[in-house]
Design goal:
Bound molecules: adenosine-5'-triphosphate, magnesium ion
InterPro entries (chain B): ABC_transp_permease
CATH topology of the largest domain in chain D: Rossmann fold
Largest interface: A-B, 49 and 47 residues
Largest sheet of chain D: 6 strands, mixed
Distance between the termini of chain B: 31 Å
Number of domains of chain D: 3
Number of helices of chain D: 17
Structural class of chain B: mainly alpha
Function (chain B): Part of the ABC transporter complex LsrABCD involved in autoinducer 2 (AI-2) import. Probably responsible for the translocation of the substrate across the membrane.
Number of strands of chain D: 23
Membrane topology (chain B): Multi-pass membrane protein
Protein name (chain B): Autoinducer 2 import system permease protein LsrD
Structural class of chain D: alpha/beta
Chains: A mainly alpha, B mainly alpha, C alpha/beta, D alpha/beta
Organism (chain B): Bradyrhizobium iriomotense
Strand order of the largest sheet of chain D: 6-9-10-3-11-12
Helix content of chain D: 25-40%
Oligomer: heterotetramer
Distance between the termini of chain D: 53 Å
CATH architecture of the largest domain in chain D: 3-Layer(aba) Sandwich
CATH class of the largest domain in chain D: Alpha Beta
Chain lengths: 323, 319, 327, 501
Amino acid sequence: MTSPTERFAAARWQAVLRSRPMLTVAMVALAWIGASFFQPGFGGWRHLRYLLELAAIVGLVSIGQTLVVVAGGIDLSVGAIVTVSAIGVPLVTWLADPTGTAPALFILLCATLIGALNGLGIALLRVHPMIMTLAMATFLQGVLILIAGGSAISAQNAVLSWLGNARPGGISASVLLWLLASAIALWLLHKTPFGARLFALGTNPLATSLSGIGVRSTTIAVYAISGFTAGLAGALVLGVNGQGYVGIGDSYLLASIASVVLGGTSILGGRGTYAGTIPGAILLVTITALITMLNASAGWRNILFGTLIMALLLLSGRERQRR
Amino acid sequence: MTTSTSLLYWRIQNVRNRGLWWLFAVVAAFIALYVYLFPGLLSTGGISKFSQNWFPLALVSMAQAVLMLAGGISLSIGATVSLGGVIAATLLAGPLGVAGGSAVVLLVGAATGLASGWIVVRLGLPAIVVTLAASFIIAGWALLIMPRPGGAVPAWFSDLLAGNTPVALGLLVLVVLLWKLYLATPLGLSLYAAGENPVGAYRSGAPVDLSRIAAYGLSGLLCAAAGLFVAAQTGAGDPVIGNAFTLNSIAAAVLGGVGFLGGRGTMRGALAGSLLLSIMISVMFFLGLPPVAQYVAQGLIIVVAVALPEIAAMRRPRT
Amino acid sequence: VGQAHAAANCIKGDRKPPYTIGWANIYSVPTWMKETQGTIEKEVDALKAKGLVSKLVVTDAQGDANTQIQQIQSMIDANVDAIILIAGSSSAPARVLAAACAKGIAIMNFDSLVDTDQVTAKINTDSAQWGAQAATWLIDAMGGKGNIIVLNGPAGVSVSDDRRKGATPVLAAHPDIKILTETNTAYNVAPAQEAVTNLLFANQQIDGILSLGGALSAGAINALDKEGRPMVPITGENARQFLEMWKSKNLKAWATMQPNWLGAFATYAAVQALQGKDVPAFVKIPLPVISNANVGEYLAKAGDFPADGYIYSPYSDGLFDQLLAQK
Amino acid sequence: MTQDAIVAARSISRSFFSNRVLNDVSITLRAGTIHALLGENGAGKSTLIGILSGALAPDAGDIDIDGVRHAAVRPAIARAAGIAVVQQELSLTSQLSIAENVGMGALPRRLGLIDYSALMRRAHEVCALVGLEQDLARPVGDLPLGQQQLVEIAKALFRKPRVLILDEPTSSLSAHEAANLMAVLRRLRDAGTAVLYISHRLNEVLALCEWVTVLKDGVVTADRSLGGVDAQGLVRLMVGREPGDLFPRWTPSAEPAPIIAVEGLSAGMVRDVAMTIRRGEVLGVGGLVGQGQEDLLLGLYGAIPAVAGRAEFNGVVGLPRSVPQANARGLAYVPADRKREGLHLIHSIAWNLMIPSFGRAPSLAMRRTASERERAIALADRLGIKGDLTREVQALSGGNQQKVALAKWLPSDPPVLLLNDPTRGVDVDTKREIYALLRRFAAEGRAVVLLSSDTPELVNLCDRVAVMRAGRLVRVLERTELSEEAIVSAAMESAVPGAAA
Ligand SMILES: Nc1ncnc2c1ncn2[C@@H]1O[C@H](COP(=O)(O)OP(=O)(O)OP(=O)(O)O)[C@@H](O)[C@H]1O
Ligand SMILES: Nc1ncnc2c1ncn2[C@@H]1O[C@H](COP(=O)(O)OP(=O)(O)OP(=O)(O)O)[C@@H](O)[C@H]1O
Ligand SMILES: [Mg+2]
Ligand SMILES: [Mg+2]
C-alpha cells in the first residue's frame, strides 16, 4: 500500500497562480490599470461597477456556454434565447402578478425547454451542436416574427427591474445574482458527478458512453442549463433596459464564446472551468468599453478589437497538443 | 481484386459517394420541384441566373469544407468575401485593369488565409477563435477600404460572369476540376490525413503542417474569388455583403456530410449541401411561403437533412 | 389606363390589373419592419377591394443582400408586376433590378435605397437633409458651442453614412462645437445605452448628443438617467420609447422620422405607375419634424403602436397623390 | 552475427519532463536479423524506436546510420535511410482508401500528381504479402481493427525498408494472421532487411527472433542471442526474477448455471446467434479478426442496436437497451481500442478510475475528494499501476493504459465482464495478473466473456470458446476440445457444419 501523498502530488499555490483563470484575472487587472492611465475616468469605481454589471449579463449567458463547451458542444442559440426571454416576459400577461415573479419564472421555464430541445436534437437525432443550435436560432427568429411588434405592451416587471437596477449596499443586484449563479455553476462543474460527466463527455463521448454514463440525458441537461442561463440573462436584460426588442440578445452569442475562450476553457471540450470565464467576461466588456471610448472609425475599431482578442489568445488560449 | 489498376482512382471516387446518395436524392427532388414550379429554369437564362446565385455560396462552402477536412473551421469566411468584393470594386475599374485587379484580390484572399493558417498551425491556437478574431480584423480592413457600398466593376466583366450565359456554372466546374487535381497531388491528399490523424500522418512522412496551412490559403483564395464574383455580379463593392456566408458555409458543408473533426466528408457533399441551401430559397418563394414559414422551414429542413443520415448510420456508437 | 407610351421608368404599359405585388424585404423581424409591412398589407387590401391588386408575395432575405438578389430574381421569374424593395445593400441589387426593369416590372425602392436609376421610383426622406437638420437644431439648442457625441447606425450601411455626411458641413461650420467621440451601433436601445454609458465615463462634459436615428436616442437617455447625469439637448427619431421619455423627462429634443407608411405609399405608387400614371423617379418625402410643439399629438396616439415601435404621422391617399404630383 | 550494422544507437538517454525513460541505452540493428526488443510496459521500448525513427530526439547519445553519425535522427533522414516503423498507435486516415493509406507519405507521383496505377500495383503487392484481402478502394475506416493493423504493416513494407521496426504489430491479430506476418518477416530477413520486433507475445518472439535486447526501467538488462533461451528464460530476462506459470491452473466452475441466454441475436455484423453464458466460466470468443466478435459484445452490452428472439440477462428478460441499463444488470465492458473507446486521455489516472461511478452516482451528489482518492489508490494498487495518480493517462505506456481501462470497472463488482482483447499490448507480468484475476472472477461465480485475438490465451484460460465467422457462431469448443489447431480450423472452415451451441 502506498500513501496518498505519493500517489497524489500536492497541489501547490504556485500552480494556482499560474493557472489559466489567474492569467485571465491578471490580464483584466492589467487592462483596467492601463486603461485608467490612458483614459481618465475609466478606472473610477462607478465605471468599474458598470462594467461589472455588463459582465454580469455576459457572464450569466456564459455559464451555460461554458458547461456546453466543456461537454464538447457549442450553443449558437443563446443570443436568440436571450431575445426570446427579454421579449417574452412582458407578453405573459395572463400570469401577471404584482411582483412580476410568475411571468419571469414562466419564461425561464420556456428558455429551459428550448435548451432541452437543442439537447434532444443533438442527443437523439445526433445533429451536430453547431447546426442544431443554429437551426434553433433561425427557428426562434420565425417565432419572434410572430410575437414581436404590436404586442409588447409594458415591460414593467418589479422583480426584474429591481434586479436590473438596484444597488443594495452600493453593489449591483445583477452582480450579486451573477455571484450566486457563479457559485452554483462552479459547484456543479467541479463538485458533482454531473460536472464530471460533462468533462468526460467533452473529452471522449464514445468512451463516456461505454463507461455507462447516460450521454443522452447529460447532453439534454447541459443544453437545458444553457437555455436556462441564457433565459435568465434575457430576463436581466429586460430588467436593465426596461424593454426587450428583437435583436437585443444578438451580441451575447459571440460575447459568451469569447469569454469562455479567453477564460482558458478549451473550445475542443473536456478541459476548462467557469472560474476562467468570469474574468473572461470582465475582460471582454473591458476591451469593448475601451474601444468604444476610442475616437476611431468603425474600420479601425474592428481591427483593434480583432487584434486585441488575437493577442490575448496568444497569452491565454494556447491549446496543449492532444494525442 | 484483379488487375484493373488504373481504375483504382475511379473506384475510390465511387466509394466516396457512399452516404451521399440520400443527399443527392433530396437535392434532385428539390430541383424537380423547382422545375415544376418554374419551368423557365430549364432555359439557358434560367440556369444562368440560378447558377449565378448559387456560385458564391458554392465557393464559400468549398472554402469551409477544405478547412473542416483539415480539422479546422473558419468564422472569417464572410469577412473575406466582403474584403475581396471591396478590393475588386476598387481596383478592377482602375489602372490595374480586370486581370491585375483580380490577381490582387485573389492574392489578398490567399494571404489572409495563410496568415490565419500560420497562426492556427504554428502557434497552436484553436481555429474557431483565431478566425473569429481574424473576422474582425478583415471586416475592419474592408470598412477602411470602403466605408460604404460603392466602387465599380467594368460592365463587360459583369456581363461576362453574370450575364445571360452560364459562365458561372462553367467556372464552378473548372474550380471543381482544379480541386480534384489538387486532391490528386500528395499535398492535397495529405489534407485528409492531416485533418484526421495529424500525429500519424506526420510519422508517415505526410506534409502535415504544410497541407493544413495550404488549406487555409486555399480557403482564403476561394472566399476572395467569391467576393470577386459577387462584386462582378452586383457591379459594385459592399463592405458587409459577405456576413451571412460564414454560417451558411458551415451549414452547407455539414449538410453535405463534412464532419467537424477533420478528415471526414467530401467536396461533392459540401457542394450538394450548398446547392440545397440555395435552391431552398427559390423553392420556398415559389411555394408562396410567408417569411415566418420560411424561417421555420429552413430550421427544420436543415435539422432533418442532417439528422436523417445520422439516424440511418446509428449502427455503432462511434462519434 | 393603357396609354400609348408609359410615363414612368421601367413601365411598358403592357401589364393589366389585377396586379401581383412582390414585397422584397431585407429583414422582417424588427418592429419597424413589422409596422411597415402592416401599412403595405393594409394598402394591398384597399387595392384588392378596388380590383387593382390580386396578390401580395413577400420575401425576407434574413438580412443577407445576396439572398435578396436571388429572391428578386425569383420574383422576376414568377413575373410579378411590381417589386417593392427595401434594399439590403445600396450597391448589390443594381444588376438584378436592371433585369426586372427591362421586363417592365414596376420597381418601388424605399427606405434603404439602391445606387441605380433602373427603378421606377425611389421613395425616401432625404438622409443628408436629416443629418443636416438634426445638426442644425442641436447646435442651435446648445447655443452654438459645446461638446457633443455622435451616435451613428451600423457601419458600412449607406443610410447611416448619408445621415452622418449630411451633418458634416453643418458641424464644420461651427468650430465651437467639439465632437468628443462617435460610435456605430445597431439602431437599437441596448447597444446604444452601453456605448453611451462608457462614453459618459470617459467624457465628463457632454453638452449635446447628435443621435442619428432609430432607438439610439432612447439608449442615450437611459444611459444619462442611470448614471445620474443631467439631460442634454438630443436629436432622434420617432421611436415611441424616445418620445415618451421626451415627455416624462421634459427633454430638450427634436426628432424626425422615416414614416412607416412609405411601404403603403410605395405600393400605391407602384399601382399608379403600372396604370400608366406619371411617377417621378425620386419621390422625396418631406421629413416630418417632431418638436416640443407637436410631440403631444404623437404621444396621444402612442397606444396604437407597439411599445418598441415607431409612432408615424398619419397618411391617406390624398397625401400620396400630393406626393406623386410633386416634381 | 557477421552481417553489417545498419543502425547503431549508442548511450541514448531521454527524459519526459523529469522522468528518465531511457538511460544509456545502446542497440545495434543488423541486416538480415530479426531482433527482439522486450520489456515490461513502460520500459521505454516505444520511446526508443521513436528516437531511432526520428519522431523523438534523444537528450544524450548518438546514432550511426550506415556509419554516419547523427546526434539526432530527423524523420527525413530516417526515411531516406530506409527506416520504416509500424507504430503501436495506428497512423491511418479512416476515410482514405486502403491504397492511399498504404502510400501516404511516400506516394508515387507522375508529373506532380499521384500515380494511381503505380500506387495500385505496389499497394496490391504489399497487401497480398501481409495477407490483406480487401478491395484497395475501400476506406480504411470500414475495416476492423485487426485489418487496419495489417494496413499499417503494409504501409511500412510499401517503403521497401532496409530497417523495419514493428511495435507490437500482432497485438490485435489472430493466430492465422500473425503466422502470416511471421512468414513475411522471415522472407524480408532472408532478403537482408534488418527487423526490430517488439511484442509481448513471447512465443512469437521465440519462434521468430535471433537476437534480443531487454529493457527494464529504461536500462538495457540483456543484449544477447536468443539461441538456447526458452519461454521461462525470456520472462526471467524481462522480469528479473523467477516467473511463475503464465496461466493459472484451470479448475472447473462449481456452478454452471446460465447467467445470460440469448437466441436469435442480431447486432451489427452479428446474425442470429444463440448462446448461453454461465456463471463461473470464462467464455472465450475467437475467430479470425473482424468476424463480428466485437459487435457480439457490444450488442450484449446495449451499446449498439440489437434484436433477439429471446434473451434473459441475470433473470431479467430482454436485451439491455442502453449501456446504463446493461451496467444495472451487472455487465461491464472493456474495449479493445483503449485510446478511443476506453479512456479519457487528457485527464488524470485517478479521475479515469472514477468514471463509471460518476455515471452511477446521483447527478447532484456532492463529490468527496478524500474517498475518491482512497478508492483510486486501492484500484491502482490492485492492478499494479504505479506512481502519481494525478498524471494524465496519455502519459502512460500502452499497457498501463490498458490496466486503467480495466481497473475502472472493478469497484462495481460486475457479475458479467465483457472483455474485448484485454491483454492487448500488456506485458507478460501484467498478463499473468490479469489472467489470475479473470480466473478468480470466474471462481467467485461471475461470468467472463473474453474476446481475444491471442489464441493461447483462449486455449489456456477459457472454459469454452465460441468461434465466430462472418457474424455467425460456427462452433463452441468445450474445454476438452480446446487447442490452437481446433480454434484455427473452426475459424477457417468454409462450410458451416450444422452450426451453433
Ligand atoms: N461537370 C460538372 N458539371 C456540373 N457540376 C459538376 C461537374 N463535375 C462535378 N460537379 C459538381 O461537383 C461535385 C463534386 O465533384 P467531385 O465528385 O468530382 O468532387 P471532388 O473534387 O472529387 O470532391 P471529393 O473527392 O472531395 O468528393 C459533384 O457532385 C457535382 O455536384
Ligand atoms: N510524451 C510523453 N510524455 C510523458 N511521458 C511519456 C511520454 N511518452 C512516454 N512516456 C513515459 O515513458 C515511459 C516509457 O514509455 P514507452 O511508451 O516507451 O513504454 P513501452 O516500453 O513502449 O511500453 P508498452 O509495452 O506499454 O508499450 C512510460 O513511463 C511513459 O509513461
Ligand atoms: Mg475527389
Ligand atoms: Mg510501447
